[in-house]
Write a structure and sequence with these properties.
Blueprint: H1 2-10, H2 17-29, H3 31-38, H4 49-63, H5 71-80, H6 84-87, H7 90-97, H8 106-134, H9 140-158, H10 166-178, H11 193-199, E1 207-212, H12 218-239, E2 251-256, H13 261-273, H14 277-282, H15 287-300, E3 305-308, H16 315-329, E4 331-337, H17 351-369, E5 373-378, H18 382-385, H19 401-405, E6 408-414, E7 427-435, E8 440-448, E9 453-456, E10 468-471
Parallel strand pairs: 1-5, 1-6, 2-3, 2-4, 4-5
Antiparallel strand pairs: 6-7, 7-8, 8-9, 8-10
C-alpha cells in the first residue's frame, strides 16, 4: 500500500500541455478565441510557467482594450515585463501559433486546461489533508471540517460559466409567478402574518439579519420563527406521504453560539406549551402546565429541527455542517444566534473586516445551498443614548457590511424595555428597515414575557390593523 501511495505522488500533476499550447495559439490568432477563453481561464490555471506568463500578457493587452493582439504585440508586452526571454523568446510564440488545429475549438481547449487545473488543486488539497492527518491532531472533528472546507472551496471557485439566455430565465421566473396565488406565500411562512405580508415569507438564497439590543428578545423571536417553519415542514412532509413516500423534510438548522441546547429546548417548549418559563425553572408548575409541556414535547420531538450549540464555530465549520445536513436530511432554513460570536478566520484583522468577511460568507452560504439564512446581530449602544430608542441601520454593530450584504434587515424593539409603564407592557414591534425586493415598514407584535413568546398583535388592539408601511419600494439592486 505504501509503495502504491508513493507511485501516485511521484507522478507528474495532471496537465495537458498540448491543450495549453492550443488555447494560447488560438488566442494569438483570433480575438474571438480570447473572448471564448477569457471567462473560463485565468493565468494560474496553466501548468507551464511559460504559458502562465503568455496568458497574463494577452490578458493585460485585452483588458487595456488593445485591438491588435498577436505574436508581435504579445512579444512586446512580454519584453516590457522582462518575461520574453523566460518563455523562450519570439521563437516560442511562433511555435504556439502552429499549435491549434482549429481556432474555433478554443473553448474546448480551455475547458481541458481548466479541468486539469481542478484536478491539480484537488490533488494538492488531498496532499495537505494527508499531512494534517500525519500530524495526529487532537480534534478529529476540527480536522474533518477543515478537510471538507478545502474540498468544497475548490467547488466554490469553479462557478457556473454557462450563461442562460433571458428567454430561459423569464420562463423560470414566469413558472414561479404562475405557481403563486393570493392565498399563498412564495417563501417560508414565519408565523407572523403581518411580517409575511411585507416579505411574502423567507426566500431561498436570502440573508436575513435580525438585530436588537441585549435582552429585547431576539432569541425568543427567532425561536417562534423556527417552530413555525419546522411545523410547516413537518405538515408538508406528512401530506406528501411521509417516510413511505420518501418525501423530503426541509427542516431547520439552528446554530446557538451563546445558549446551550438544553436552554433552547426549554424555550421552545415554553413557547409551544404557553408555559411560564420562570415558574418552569423554579419547579413550580401546576399539573395542567406539566400536561401541556408533555404534549408540546411530543409534538416538538417529531419536528425536523437540528441544533448545534458548539461555541466558537467558524464559518468553515458552519458551512460544512449546513452542507451535510442538507445532503442527509434536507434543509429549508438556517438560523445563527448570533453573528458576532462566529469565530473569525483571520484573528489579526480589524474587527470590522472580520465581521464583513463573516457577513459575506453567510450570504455566499445562502446562495450556495439555496436556503434562507437568518442571522441574529447585536446593535451598538448608540440606541440607548437617543430619545427615540427605535433602532436604525446605522446602529448595526461593528460593520456596515452587514447591511450591505443582507437582503432583509429587521430590528426588534420593545418600548417597555426602556419605559416599563403599564401602558407599554407587552407592546413590541418589528422594524423592517431594509428589504431588497419589497417594502419596508413596522410590524406590530405582542410580547408575552412569561412564556417568552411573540404573537401577532390583535386587530382589536390595533384599530388600523396590520403592518405600517414606511416605503413601497425596495432598496434597489
Amino acid at each position: 500500500m505504501a509503495a502504491s501511495r508513493g507511485d501516485i505522488f511521484d507522478k507528474l500533476p495532471p496537465q495537458n500541455l498540448d491543450a495549453e499550447r492550443s488555447v494560447l495559439g488560438s488566442m494569438l490568432l483570433s480575438q474571438d478565441a480570447i473572448d471564448e477563453a477569457a471567462d473560463l481561464l485565468e493565468a494560474r490555471h496553466f501548468y507551464s510557467d511559460s504559458h502562465q506568463r503568455v496568458c497574463s500578457a494577452i490578458y493585460r493587452l485585452y483588458e487595456n482594450g488593445s485591438g491588435g493582439i498577436d505574436a508581435v504585440t504579445v512579444a512586446e508586452e512580454l519584453e516590457r515585463h522582462a518575461d520574453l526571454a523566460e518563455i523562450g523568446g519570439p521563437a516560442y510564440l511562433a511555435q504556439l501559433l502552429e499549435a491549434p488545429p482549429l481556432t474555433a475549438h478554443a473553448r474546448y481547449y480551455a475547458n481541458i486546461v481548466r479541468e486539469k487545473f481542478v484536478l491539480r488543486t484537488l490533488r494538492e488539497a488531498c496532499t495537505q489533508i494527508l499531512r494534517d492527518i500525519s500530524d495526529e491532531p487532537d480534534d478529529a472533528a476540527d480536522l474533518l471540517a477543515h478537510a471538507e472546507q478545502r474540498i468544497f472551496s475548490i467547488l466554490e471557485q469553479q462557478g457556473d460559466n454557462e450563461r442562460m439566455e433571458i428567454r430561459e430565465i423569464l420562463m423560470a421566473a414566469f413558472d414561479g409567478i404562475t405557481s403563486r396565488s393570493k392565498e399563498s406565500l412564495s417563501g417560508l411562512a414565519t408565523g407572523f402574518c403581518d411580517l409575511d405580508a411585507i416579505t411574502t415569507g423567507l426566500h431561498p438564497s436570502q440573508l436575513v439579519i435580525l438585530a436588537a439590543r441585549p435582552s429585547i428578545g431576539k432569541t425568543a423571536f427567532v425561536c417562534n420563527i423556527v417552530l413555525a417553519v419546522a411545523q410547516n415542514a413537518q405538515k408538508r412532509f406528512l401530506e406528501a406521504g411521509g417516510a413511505k413516500a420518501r418525501a423530503p423534510r426541509e427542516g431547520v438548522l439552528l446554530f446557538s453560539l451563546e445558549q446551550s441546547s438544553l436552554e433552547l429546548a426549554e424555550r421552545l417548549l415554553c413557547i409551544k406549551a404557553r408555559v411560564d418559563g420562570h415558574r418552569l425553572r423554579r419547579g413550580e408548575l401546576e399539573d395542567d402546565e406539566r400536561d401541556r409541556l408533555l404534549a408540546a414535547s411530543s409534538t416538538v420531538s417529531e419536528l425536523p429541527l437540528f441544533i448545534d450549540d458548539t461555541p466558537g464555530r467558524s464559518m468553515a465549520q458552519i458551512s460544512a455542517i449546513a452542507r451535510r445536513t442538507k445532503r442527509r436530511h434536507g434543509l429549508g432554513l438556517i438560523v445563527l444566534d448570533y453573528l458576532q460570536l462566529i469565530e473569525p478566520e483571520d484573528r489579526k484583522a480589524p474587527r470590522e473586516q472580520q465581521v464583513a468577511q463573516i457577513a459575506r460568507r453567510l450570504k455566499f452560504l445562502a446562495k450556495e445551498i439555496a436556503v434562507p439564512v437568518v442571522a441574529l446581530a447585536q446593535l451598538n449602544r448608540g440606541v440607548d443614548l437617543r430619545t427615540d430608542k427605535r433602532p436604525k441601520l446605522a446602529d448595526l454593530r461593528e460593520s456596515g457590511a452587514i447591511e450591505q450584504d443582507a437582503d432583509l434587515v429587521m430590528f426588534l424593539h420593545r418600548e417597555d424595555a426602556y419605559d416599563p409603564t403599564p401602558e407599554n407592557q407587552g407592546l413590541a414591534e418589528l422594524i423592517v428597515a431594509k428589504h431588497r425586493n419589497g417594502p419596508t415598514g413596522l410590524v406590530p407584535l405582542t410580547w408575552i414575557k412569561e412564556s417568552m413568546r411573540f404573537e401577532n398583535r390583535s386587530r382589536l388592539d390595533e384599530p388600523e390593523g396590520g403592518w405600517i408601511p414606511t416605503s413601497h419600494a425596495g432598496d434597489g439592486f
